[in-house]
Amino acid sequence: MATEGAFVSRTFIIDTITPYRTSKKPIVAVNYTYPGPLLEANENDTCVIRVINKLAQPTTIHWHGISHRGTPDMDGAVGATQCAIPPNAEMTYKFKAYPPGTAWYHGHFLGQTVDGLIGPFIIHPKVEPNQEYYDTERILMVADWYNDLARTTLLSWFLSSKNPEGIEPIPDAIVVNGKFSQSLFVQTSNAKRIRFRIINAAAFSMYTFSIDGLLLHITEVDQTPVKPYTVSSFVINAAQRVSCFVDLNELDQSFVPDDVPPTKSIYIRFKADRDMYPVDISSYIPPYATQRYPYPVFFNPLYLAILSLDSCNSLPTYPANQVITGSSNPDLGDRDANLLHARPFYQANNKIPDATHYLKLVITIHPDILNISRGYMNDVTYDHALDTTTNKSGKPKCLTSDKVPLLYQMATNPNELGIPSPIITSDSPLPAIQSDGHGHYLFPYGAVVDIVLENRDEGEHPFHSHGHNFWIISTSANPEAEQLYRGAYTKRDVVSVPGSGWAKIRLVTNNPGAWLFHCHIEWHMNAGLMVAFIVGPNELLAQGYTIKSTHKRFC
Ligand SMILES: [Cu+2]
What we know:
Belongs to the multicopper oxidase family. The protein has 555 residues and is mostly beta strands. It folds into three domains: 7-124, Sandwich (Immunoglobulin-like); 131-345, Cupredoxins -  blue copper proteins (Immunoglobulin-like, Sandwich); 348-552, Cupredoxins -  blue copper proteins (Immunoglobulin-like), CATH 2.60.40. Helix content is 6%, strand content 36%. The chain has six helices and 34 strands. It has helices spanning 150-158, 406-412, 481-484, 522-526, 537-542, 549-552; strands at 7-17, 27-30, 39-42, 46-53, 62-64, 90-96, 101-106, 118-124, 136-145, 173-176, 185-187, 193-200, 207-211, 216-221, 224-231, 233-236, 241-247, 265-272, 302-308, 333-334, 357-367, 373-377, 423-425, 428-432, 434-435, 440-443, 448-455, 461-465, 470-475, 490-492, 494-497, 502-508, 513-519, 530-535. Strands 10-9-12-17-14-15 form a six-stranded mixed sheet, with no helix packed on it. Bound molecules: copper (II) ion. Residues 461, 519, 521, 524, 529 line the site of copper (II) ion (CU).
């Protein structure tokens, strides 16, 4: 008999704070901390999170990585699963803590994620697969810091005709656990073997993570445990999570010069990938920049935290530019943000069904007729309001709307959404998933869909699926993975699509509802690099879903 999980009841007050002496920026925070408090649950616990909005704007919280089976209205995606919680109102999110692993929560409206609405969410599995390898654990939540607010300044500039090239707002700094470079001390507390849970909560940046002189043994990607996979550094893209453990007995201090005293601490490095910024960051001053904040004028892509080996918080004795990778063997660095060579821990149970359907999504970014740079999926830029300039096929029946979420439209008119059923096309022998021409794709319930993301943009884009995780089969960076790992692909909820390349994922549509699928770079999502997966409208009703009056009042 299955055991019922416990209840995890929390109250999240969303309000602004100004925690930094040197910045007046009002951060959007949960319970007056940045990042928000650690939310912890055991696998299959029922989380009951009362979210109280004390902001002057509407808000929601998205529980990133949670499958929401049977709770399609608890995903926090404005326009898809709910209307936003108005100021001075509250909503209680209730959902099962599943799947276990390193998840996180964040805003999903008005750029609030960029402005601070982030926090870690750890779900402990019934059996922790790699527990024998570590004695304690630490969370490192990395994010891009902007001196200006996304809501008032960055988004309006980015999506304006003043920025036809679509230059993304460049971060002003990097923060980890709310601390700026060289101010975060991580104590070992006498443990020799430490698990790090790295959560990339950045609006934009992809980072290379390493710790000087230590090997990193990766044990989890997103919420999938993997067999220990040893590297000297790895890449983590926006919204991805990676766990790795280190063993201080393996510390190779040969990088410490002979002429400095022995070091009692070493650097933990997050190095942002310079190539993704469309400007020369060493001299770039954004046009919206204000002089109000004393943070570095030019963005430094190298963030340093300090791992204090004796917990005394001394600085390393060696210069920070002494080493560039976490090991003397640079060949051990993995440059693949998908970490396809990490193998799932539960390989024997990892039965992967054959595909029954097919969907190709072509990613492009270009200016629209108003000279505003937009992102397109199959030539459609996603907007909460119908953009008639990009599609002349007429008014869609099923329309993303801040007033009538897609989920409510599914529940009200399950058979009249105006989206064609799958058809055979010349692209593939499998039936191809169709859309209404406005970014809404209708998936039969229980389909096994191979989705090919063809990226015609030069940038690498981390795509996230709400409500479903998926197997990553192969990418243009690792095309051989499809054959090499057949039958044992790894599940994630973010796939990093290489620039001018492609990624192939397989997704089982076993979760009726309206689920967003989007680039997790906040700027690109707001530029329209998003679609909605409409999964099994009739099954949604058959499972007993009804629109809650307590939710509908927000619309
Ligand atoms: Cu993107």
